[in-house]
């Protein structure tokens, strides 16, 4: 009897730990000097390996950059990472979308340990708009027509036999964090996992994403894309053991990327998933 009770206690502890691991609350001592230094370092990296290209579809033009693995082996397949920018990077110069979070994929160690193609498109106008959602009590995100050009581009890229279609990953910050949610909602069978940083939630197709690997990252002090949006979305994903939520208690919208610019945790988490 004692052995049975002990086993039940271990099972309960294991379940509790699994549930607790889904939400991680962190308090980080923010160092503005270190943040500025890291951004400067990333912004100084040469980006010539991010090849400039363009795509047109459905009446829209989409400039984009494509980074290939450092070494490509004949016959091998590599993941495709789709990295989406925030609203301050809108334009057509095919340059500004390479924000610091996207440039982390240029890090020599990351490129060596996590070989992948990295797609960084640049939208001229917003691919998402935010509206108050009375049903959910938060601001939610709605996809715009120009998102179709990115869907067309992805469809074209995955015809490359060296892209592993079982390992296509999404990551985005701010507006990009909302847009990756649109992509996952519209094409859940295309993408193996998604990271949304400080995004406004898309709750339009919860059925499509309820079992997908999803990592939400948000600062509780964010008053631009309010924290309660990600909090609400995560609660809607209750029961999804592949979903996780990291909350930074003392970070806001502009500082949330600080702990993400000098870590391999994002890449490690993405690369463990496949369709």
- Under CATH, the topology can be stated as Rossmann fold
- The gyration radius over C-alpha positions equals 19 Å
The shape, in one word, is globular
The tally of beta strands, per DSSP, is: 11
- The secondary-structure class comes to alpha/beta
Largest sheet: 9 strands, mixed
* Uncertain residue ranges: 1-21
Written overview of the protein:
The protein is α/β, with parallel strands linked by helices and about 280 residues long. The protein has one domain (about 25-270): 3-Layer(aba) Sandwich (Rossmann fold). It has nine helices and eleven strands. The strands form two sheets. Strands 1-11-10-9-8-4-5-3-2 form a nine-stranded mixed sheet, sandwiched between helices. Strands 6-7 form a two-stranded antiparallel sheet. Strand 10, helix 8 (about 225-235) and strand 11 (about 245-250) form a beta-alpha-beta unit.
